[in-house]
Amino acid sequence: MDYKEIGLRAGLEIHQQLDTAEKLFCRCPTRLRSTDAHTHEFFRYLRATESELGELDRAAEEEMMVMRRFTYYAYDTTCLVEDDEEPPAHLNAEALQLTLSIAKLFGMHPVEQVHTMRKLVIDGSNTSGFQRTALIALQGSLPGGCRVETLCLEEEAAQRVHDAVFSLDRLGIPLVEISTAPCLHTPEEVQEVAEYMGMVLRSTGKVKRGIGTIRQDINISIRGGARVEIKGVQELEAIADVVRWEVSRQQGLLAIREELRERNARVEQESTDVTRLFAHTASAILRKAKRILAVNLVGYGGLVGREIQPDRRLGSEFSDYAKKCGVGGIFHTDELPAYGITADEVRSVRELLEAGPDDCVVLVAGSPEQAACAIRQVTRRAEMAQKGVPEETRRLLEGKKSTAYMRPLPGAARMYPETDVLPITIEEQNWVAIELPELLSERAARYTRELGLDSVLARQAAYSDRLGVFEQAVALGVKPTLAARTITGTMREARREGVPVEQVEDASLLALLQSVEAGTIAKEAIPELIRLVATGHPVEEAIRGYAASSFSVTDVEAMADRIIRNRAEFVRERGKGALGPLMGVLMEEVRGRVDGKVVSEVLRKALDRFLKES
Amino acid sequence: MTLVLTPGARVRFTFHGGEFEGTYVTEREGRMVIKLENGYNLGVEPAALLSSHLPPPSPPPRITTIEQDSSLPECAIISTGGTIASRVDYRTGAVTSQFSAEDILRAIPGLGGIARYRTRQISSLLSENMQPGIWRDLAHAIYHEICEGVRGVIVTHGTDTMGYTASAMAFMIETTVPVVFVGSQRSADRPSSDNVMNALCSARAAVSELGEAAVVMHGTTSDDHCAIHRATRVRKMHTSRRDAFQSIGIPPLGGVEYPDLTLTLGPHARTRQEGEARLFDRIEERCGLLTFVPGTPPEVIDSCEGYQGLVIAGSGLGHVASAWVPRLKELIGAGTTVVMTSQCLHGRVCDRVYDTGRDLLSIGVIEGEDMLPETAVVKLGWVLGHEQDPERVRTLMQTDLRGEICRRSLHGL
Ligand SMILES: [Zn+2]
Q1: Residue among A54, A84, A129 minimizing CB distance to B61
Q2: What is the pLDDT of residues B305-346, one digit of tens each?
Q3: Cα A75 to averaged position of ligand 1 atoms, centre (Å)
């Protein structure tokens, strides 16, 4: 597809957790906890308030349709600030300094005076009902010319445990939010820029690593479509695909718009109470419902059931809107009879609503309030279909190649000043004095140049979580290739085999590498030792058990002779060709305690001897 | 050149070669605070301003008129200010009290299902600026409403000094109906504010069978129930938590469940009375509370010269350093009534156990029983406002009038 031709415009918003000692507005550690460890819990209701401009934010308004009770888990590592029971402390100076470094890395300019704001978020993920956030820098640039528009420092939201239950360990961890202009024009470009930005952030050495610590929001629009934000894409590799999927969804919606226009489609403004028609239905949902409402979408027949994403129809979009009112979903005649609803029931509904063959009837069921709210939402969304693509915030569906509606794009009215935090002046001398860390990409090039690593390995080492181990090991005289392979390929393979490698401390890895360099252990022993250390064996003990000195060359010679004698017939048959298979057997027995070269030398000699003798 | 900008003006300014637009909010430490299109504020050097113009005034906000259900009992909401009704002040960036009582009804529509309301605002003070003179105005307003036949009175108040005002009203009005004080600990502008739940629970208490002055606030950190506290036994025990208000020395009078608003009253709660309410509105303002701290020179007492009443929050059973005794003797000799309470807050004063205590009794210090120091100073001002005879004053201070003194110290409180 020619993305320039269809007018693709995409931008990125990257959220990266910072690895500071304390949270942004309290003095709690930035440590994630197992939810089992929570020491107490409490619950609250949130309600929207008038914002600074006196308008209720439309995203907030939609969330308010259901008054929800939110439960929070608190820990011995959280405090009253996370509980929204105490005013925030001063903005964390370490986080601010780090954010300024990041701003400088992106060629941005800091604001002169930082004002912390309250951004209305009433989905429960913030106990206060707002997220504290501050604009730190503006106007940066990326290689390739795309602009970085803003850099904000904000508090991370609470982690959803399930439904309306949230865990407070994550709430308040410092988070930088970096937004680019919508100046990316192909899916590949979006992914490359995301990769670059992630690399720059990691170059500071002070950002959190691991799942969920970096999240990408992607803004996408095509000509004739609308700006849609896909929230929280966690995997870099998925980004180009996510852009492609959204482009095709917007194209699907635009095609539906054209058809609706041709058919002069319209939405009946009045909904009809059809509860009595389903008094004896086989559908459990409808039978239990206190109120069933139906609306006729004139000229929508067949289009509501049309697939616009894998496994997602226009009707799925209606359903997402209706769910905001607390109903489980909707039924529409494009997919009926089904779900226990009979053809007769469909016919009687169509008759009652005087629906023609080209029309689609949508049903919602729930309490009277829920049903009224849901049918309004369906009507609203159906009308949007005539305009094409609504501006929305959407989320990626796990394991699927599609997205679902979350909420309208938030408007600017959702922010007002956080009066409990004083403004901070960014001093010019502080800004000038910030020394930029070496970019990981530059570091990789230097490893090739100075340490002779090939470029792939150099890049892997520089981008690795264990970069620190590599640097220390090389400084202590470990061969760069060995150190690089160990922290990248060896660790990766061990993880693939199910070894909990994250349990291996940097110091242990360093000790292993030094032991190899000192000749205490063979490098072949490293995978096995990593496994032992990862499963709780003290590193010194593990190294002792595998020390090369526990096997003398004479021991290996004896083992080689024994192996050959036990397989005499095979060896005579194969001659020197038996070396390979025998090597495998012998290496298995020495289990990495002896250097492979030594083993192979010993075996070759023993084989020669045996063949000469027989 | 000084630029005079009106908050709300649209401005253009430069920032490192780029041009930006925004809305001028205020001036802060020499910089213009500007709200950008994306909602963020930032501070900018005034020299960066390119142009500004005032946008046409925005249409006045839609004011929804409040329909009241005439079948419901009538209550009075009297507002004094405080965080149950606060708004952001863009000039200073601070949270201040600004809403009238009507604004409260608009902000908390659920109130309309409990009662209909007459509303009046007697002040819009930060509660730390509350004074006995305003207590008098408030007492008149409450008394007036009770005489008009309301089912109950709700007083919205900043939480810092709510305990003092509630206690003052307990003494100044012999009420027949509930006089319920309510506020919020977490600012009313936040979606998590405790204002809505506290207001609904207080309205429920105002139409209940309660018949005394009380404080109704969150009972726990969760939005699960409000506690009803006796005005003379309640104390703000935390700077910021929702459940800061605690009954000291007695259990709460009752509670209101949320969100169903089921109300329960304990057997010790005074219930509605037949007959007429009575107003005792005089209060002696020259009264004070002095906390004894080890090492404080006795000269501190000199600053209380001319006081008609002085409550001391003494150590332990009700003590001060021996060096204070001669000065206190002079003060009492000059006509000041001195009442001893304990900074322990929990428990009863007894100055008969140790020598210093006996010395204090011998110079005429009155034991304040188990009264909270804050309640004791309010009561002393009120008693002195109505009674001059020293013996009558002593008797009144040691007699339980509004539940402020417990004759028995109960277990577990
Ligand atoms: Zn904390």
Answers
A1: A54
A2: 999 999 999 999 999 999 999 999 999 999 999 999 999 999
A3: 10
